[in-house]
Amino acid sequence: MKEDGRPKVMVILKTLSSQYWKFVEAGAKEAAKKLNVDVTIVGPSSEAKIDEQISLLEDAITQEPDALVVSPSQPVTVIPAFEMAKKKKIPVLLVDTDADWDDKVTFLGTDNYTAGKKGGEQLASMLKPGDKVAIIAGALGNTAMDHRVKGAKEVLQAKGIKVVAEQPADSDKEKALSVMENILQKNPDIKGVFSANDDMAIGALRALEARKLKIPVIGTDGTIEALESIQAGNLSGTIAQNPYQMGYKGVETALKAIRKEKVSKRIDTGVDVITRKNAQKKMNFLKGLLD
Amino acid sequence: MQAVKETSLLKLSKVNKSFSGIRILKDIDLEIKAGEVHILLGENGAGKSTLIKIVTGAYRKDSGEIYWEGNRVAIESPLDAMNLGIATIYQELNLIPELTVYENIYLGREIKNSGKFSLLNQKEMKKRVAEYLKRLNLDISPEDKVSSLGIGKQQLVEIIRALMMDTRLIIMDEPTASLSASETETLLKIIDDLRKQGIAIIYISHRLDEIKQIGDRITILRDGCKMATLPVKKTSTEQMIQLMVGRQLKDQYPKESFTIGAEGLKVEDLRLRKRKETISFTAYQGQILGIAGLVGAGRTELARAIFGAEPIESGKVYVFGEEVTIRSPQDAIQAGLALISEDRKGEGLILDLDLEFNMTLTSLKRLKQGAFLRFKKLNEEANRYLHELRIRPSDVDVPARKLSGGNQQKVVIAKWLATNAKVFIFDEPTRGIDVGAKVEVYRLMNDLVKQGKVVIMISSDLPELLGMCDRILVMHEGKMTADLSREEADQEIIMKAATGGIQNA
Amino acid sequence: MLDVAGKVSAEKKIAKGFLDKFGALIGLILLSVTLTLLTDKFLTLDNLMNIFRQSSVNCLLAIGMLLTILTAGIDLSVGSILAISTMLMGIVVVKWGMNPILGMAVCLGVGAFFGWLNGILLTKLRLPHPFISTLGTMNIARGLALIVTAAAPIAGFPYMIQFVGREFIGPVPISFLLVIIVYVGFHLFLTRTATGRYIYAIGGNKEAARLSGINVNRVLVIVYTMSGLMAALAGLVMVGRVNSAFPLAGLSYELDAIAAVIIGGASFFGGVGTVWGTMIGALIIAVLRNGLNLLNVSADFQMAVIGFVIITAVFIDVLRQRASKM
Amino acid sequence: MLDVAGKVSAEKKIAKGFLDKFGALIGLILLSVTLTLLTDKFLTLDNLMNIFRQSSVNCLLAIGMLLTILTAGIDLSVGSILAISTMLMGIVVVKWGMNPILGMAVCLGVGAFFGWLNGILLTKLRLPHPFISTLGTMNIARGLALIVTAAAPIAGFPYMIQFVGREFIGPVPISFLLVIIVYVGFHLFLTRTATGRYIYAIGGNKEAARLSGINVNRVLVIVYTMSGLMAALAGLVMVGRVNSAFPLAGLSYELDAIAAVIIGGASFFGGVGTVWGTMIGALIIAVLRNGLNLLNVSADFQMAVIGFVIITAVFIDVLRQRASKM
Ligand SMILES: Nc1ncnc2c1ncn2[C@@H]1O[C@H](COP(=O)(O)OP(=O)(O)OP(=O)(O)O)[C@@H](O)[C@H]1O
Ligand SMILES: Nc1ncnc2c1ncn2[C@@H]1O[C@H](COP(=O)(O)OP(=O)(O)OP(=O)(O)O)[C@@H](O)[C@H]1O
Ligand SMILES: [Mg+2]
Ligand SMILES: [Mg+2]
């Protein structure tokens, strides 16, 4: 505990280099203010920097906080560091992405597989069996995105929709644009697109616009850019998680753990399927966070 | 010869220069008059190149003054010197290998089209270079890539580059080191012309005959100090050597004779890449075998081919009677050969590494115990050659880059002496080394012969070949055109064979 | 390799420059023929234009990279410069609502500034190798790009800014026309101007260049500034393409740019390389990616195939050169 | 720089190697002092051991990289080799349940194999620069690492394999002891053996090395094989550290390894560089990251700061060298 008596919570995220994680940060900060907790939020420069995240975690443990809130980029990799925390009796909470470790306090988040399924359902609801769709995936090996793709694909296939192309675009808007352009060369008759994140969805949308193709595109994450696009009638929808809640509840629950209160092993922060109907509301909420 | 004009063009006063705290130039005064050929003479490492580099802006002096036509000037970059009208032929080639001949010649002062975005006027540059090359009767095209030329032709390009500048003073640091006799003649004639036009020349060379032929005045340096400035005509060779090395030099060519022994290296019907003719010759124990020829005659090519540095079409090589197959320098060394390359910078030295490293590189296998090198042994060995060859500075830890050109050459020689080779092929071994050191090299060759080694010396320096060799082969356009005994050989007959005039091999 | 015929006219020489790059060109042709055989969609006007458009960002980055590699240097910061210059343009134009022309000027200016900074770090601070200085700016520029909007992307650029990256003249993307103009310009610059020649000279032998009176530092600063400028121009194209600026834009694009330059026959040791070779290098990469998408090759295999094709493309060139030396 | 005293014993010469790297060392010390003043957690035994552990993967990659850079080459594939060798070890040990010792042998063997492949591509296929060959293998190895388990990570390694990356002797992490042993070994190799000297010679002047009878190709193959082997060893440490093998392991680690080598004073043009300089370079990077973490500097600012410190650390060395030349 810090000199001022406030409990110290360290939040280690996958990265802080994207808006999604900035929302998690905003939630955690808000909780810090409301609950009078000393919260430090850090993350490596990109989600791919797995080793850097481990170092961050180790360095956080060195500072002996009262609790750790972690969102692991590669779930298995953090276990040894968690063991270190355990030795120092620091409780560990997971947010956004779960890890298979028995001694965790709890996992708060949605599960990417479910998010993917919801995305698939949303897309399927706008199509009919036999339609062709394309899937834009993240870089291979990005577990979260792999899970989303898996969920979406399963649902789509179950509804009799054909996935004719599944290509990676490394979470890069420009690459997604190129990939979509190329997919359209081969499959000009596709009827819908699912993208493992919003950035790539927006890139893909550009390719469709250029061809004057008006087909549903579903993204994942719920970034402001995606919401704006939905409002403008371009993007059909996105599966928004609740990063803000993850951050807020993460800290809140950490505090409970510090106080040795009982905490549920699984806290669902829920997903929102955003379409034109509810985009404005979500947008107001998110914009409010950033001021 | 026209009388030297008395106007002072360039004057140095109390110039000092140190490297890493060691004083290389000590209070040097020097005056160059318009229209004179001023010789700089001194042992390897005396500071000649350093001195001229201060004039050309390549180095900055520590203290002292420079006057140009009586006005004090600051020369802080090569461009400053060029703007004054100073052109330089450096001792080390300074060409861009990937650019063409004409591009190199005009580098830094290209001719541009008037108006149009100041694009280069390539046509004009090529034309002028072509004309100049034609005037000198040289078999070089303006569009040849410099990297495709032999080292001699590269040197010519470097010279032409200086000559084609609009200059008042041309500095030549050992320009003839890689030139053959006839090309040297051409250059000396050009120098005479330039002098007549009132252009001053600073000329550095270790070839005393040239100095005598063209010099007006001579300044002699020793260990960074100026010893004297004298009129060339009134100074004897002995006097020059005395001032330069501080002692008498009895014999420029200390030839010793031995009895002829076994066939050491025998080359049979060797056909080089892209050549039609085959070459055969034998070098014996107890003899120094010379190979003469003009630049581009193919001597270097032959040596490299024997040594496995270049692929051959066909042919056999015997070392002491045993046939050997050489496909790489490694094989050659295994077979007991050593090749002292003519291109010390490109092929001889690892410039950034120290002398010990360079000198022992070829003999590491011999200098280790188990897996590890024996440092003491390495150090001893290196120091031994340092002293035997009088290399300066005599510190095995100095990187090779920091040595003067002549001392670098000695390091290359040392590196091969350190091997246990049976056959030594020296390609232009005395290029760029001073008269004193030359004698050391000749003595070394004598020693090698005495030890029963076979010595082959490729050289463009005819007096040296005549002075030291027991037999001289002459090459012309990739063929052997003469095989002369010591008695038969003289300058005239060699020149004739080298230009294709006779073929009796 | 040696031109036996002797005299070659300037025009022929340009052609020769092309031929010298035949190896990479052969690689490109072989790759294209293979893809044409494998999928009927490859050799369509539409798809070819696609490829040109997709290669344009890398083409622009690669031309700047070529300059630095010609001087025996490298520029790792191109991707980051792309990001910071477009982000700042976004702030000026979208957030502050200023004139798009001014915004473009800001974009190019910021790119040139960071490039200039690279040059100054290299020449004035005398850092031993541009790897260090550009690695430094790479991190700094990326950091700033993330900081300026707290990692938020900026969308909603006016049409004028999107124009270059987005529009077509007939079937031809304007971005590729821009690339052609830039390449012709750099071709002239490198082969027909004194500064261009100095760039080769510095890469070939820095000391000799200095002794020839060339202001080496000045030329190096020009080179890195141009590389930065080209990165910003690439950014402009990219913004038009995706209608937004985002802080992770251009992440690790330097690798593709370097690969294009090297596949195109330039030497890491400087002094060797051509503009057209670089373009072919960039096209090989673009065609490869396009082909993999058309064939719907699964993601895991894509990587391995790319690696294999890079090696093969260069190996063909090696074989050709060896053959021509026989 | 010149040793005026003349004779220097072999031992002194090694010490000189240390001193030559004083610049980078000064950078490291300055950095550490600053951090000690800024945060009381920095100079604790626990934290220092943390730094050592965190630097060990990069240290191992960097030593292999040093070898290639000494020969004027580069190895872009180290990160990918790390991934494929640990993935295959995972398959052998975890999936097939084979002996851990055998698994480690597989890991090292796969690493050495890919390194050897780099060497062969370079020397036998005569690709013009290792940038190409290793860029190729980088993609191929990464692709394979993704393919073998369809991108799934492998967890649950036996203790024996995790041992090196995970355990301590007293407070000292075994991984760092391993690094020390490896570094001492390579120091001896580079300074005391003929092959070590050949590596410097090849980097300094390849043609001169060849004409000195050095089998250049053989040495190059050894160098790249060792680099691959070190990448696999780094992988072994990493597996212990993170308790799993995953296909994206080591992504873009080559940049950190190159940075360590160059910050440590080696030259990109070959022939110059030391083992200890490289270690200091790797430690500078690790200390920097650790310090920024302890200070809780946010990721975007970290980037900018890292860029700045890299430039500064090298600049200090430049200043020192300039001063010593006076
Ligand atoms: N860059 C340098 N750094 C340190 N020492 C140097 C450097 N350049 C030259 N020297 C030293 O300065 C001295 C003079 O060298 P310089 O090249 O002027 O000799 P030189 O008279 O031209 O000899 P040579 O006839 O062999 O060419 C030598 O001892 C050399 O080692
Ligand atoms: N690296 C090279 N590439 C192409 N041609 C070369 C090369 N080196 C030499 N040549 C050419 O091969 C021929 C033989 O050159 P070589 O150097 O063997 O002659 P040399 O008699 O030793 O003369 P030098 O005094 O110049 O050494 C010349 O025409 C030369 O221009
Ligand atoms: Mg000299
Ligand atoms: Mg020769």
UniProtKB/TrEMBL annotation, chain B:
It is found in: Cell membrane. PROSITE patterns: ABC_TRANSPORTER_1, ABC_TRANSPORTER_2. It is a peripheral membrane protein. Gene3D superfamilies: P-loop containing nucleotide triphosphate hydrolases. InterPro entries: AAA+_ATPase, ABC_carbohydrate_import_ATPase, ABC_transporter-like_ATP-bd, ABC_transporter-like_CS, P-loop_NTPase. One of its GO terms (molecular function) is ATP binding. Residues 10-248, 260-502 form the ABC transporter domain. It comes from the Bacteria. The keyword Transmembrane does not apply. GO terms for cellular component: plasma membrane. Keywords: ATP-binding, Cell membrane, Membrane, Nucleotide-binding, Repeat, Sugar transport, Translocase, Transport. The keyword Manganese does not apply. Pfam families: ABC_tran. This is Ribose transport system ATP-binding protein. It comes from Thermoflavimicrobium dichotomicum.
TrEMBL record, chains C, D:
It is a multi-pass membrane protein. Its main location: membrane. The keyword Ribonucleoprotein does not apply. GO terms for molecular function: transmembrane transporter activity. InterPro entries: ABC_transp_permease (IPR001851). Coiled coil: none annotated. CDD domains: TM_PBP1_transp_AraH_like. The chain crosses the membrane at residues 22-39, 51-70, 101-120, 140-161, 168-190, 219-239, 260-289, 301-319. One of its GO terms (cellular component) is plasma membrane. Keywords: Cell inner membrane, Cell membrane, Membrane, Transmembrane, Transmembrane helix, Transport. This is Ribose transport system permease protein. It comes from Thermoflavimicrobium dichotomicum.
